Amino acid sequence: MSTNVEMLRRVPLFYGLDDVQLELLTRTLVRKAFPKNRVIVTEGQPADNMFIIIAGRAKVQIADQDGKEVILAVLGPGEFFGEMSLIDNNPSSASVITIEQSHFIVVSKDDFRRHLAGNPEVAMNIMRGLVRRLRVADKKIETLALLDVYGRVARVLLDFSELIDGKRVVRHKLPARQEIAKMIGASREMVSRVMKDLETDGYFVERDDGTIVINEQEPA
């Protein structure tokens, strides 16, 4: 079994494909690495590729005419972007920028359409990914509309956490305070104050190794 096939097997987009199909995919896909803070996709510009993250993280953001930025999502391994423009032929609706050194699988427009036509499983996985993003967008709108800044910061912590041994743990480094501020529509200073208050009140504990353990029970 080739290393590339083993890599593709771990990508949710290709779940359901057998080894022969995966081997055929490896002949068309290109792997690329980009450093931190590299713009991969630019808002408003034509896009000819879809990108699948295999290592690292990237942020999806939009900006208004005054340069004010809003972060829509932070993507990690197994997630993909750029497929919307390949489907509707419109310019990119947001910019995507690496937040650490990252590795990608790059799929050209022609290969993307050929894979969709020849692999119903891939088409279905694309649809699942789009639906998942709609659900995340709905939750984000609800969070911004109904929660105060404390609730929004708490939601970010939960979104970045995973369940480990019955506890909610943030294993990977959180985005900078300024980046969190762009995600929730607040100032960097407010985010820093709220984070300090939440930690002081016992809502989370930061370990020596940098991981964060969230206390899901009401602090005493």
Helices and strands in order:
Layout: H1 3-9, H2 19-26, E1 30-34, E2 39-41, E3 49-55, E4 58-63, E5 69-75, E6 80-81, H3 83-88, E7 95-98, E8 102-108, H4 109-118, H5 120-146, H6 149-159, E9 162-164, E10 167-170, H7 177-184, H8 188-200, E11 204-206, E12 212-214
Helix pairs in contact: 1-2, 4-5, 6-8, 7-8
What features would you describe in this structure?
Helix content is 41%, strand content 25%. The protein has a four-stranded antiparallel beta sheet. A four-stranded antiparallel beta sheet has the order 2-7-4-5. The chain starts with a helix and ends in a 6-residue tail after the last strand. It has 220 residues and is an alpha+beta fold. A hairpin with a 2-residue loop joins strand 9 and strand 10 (167-170).
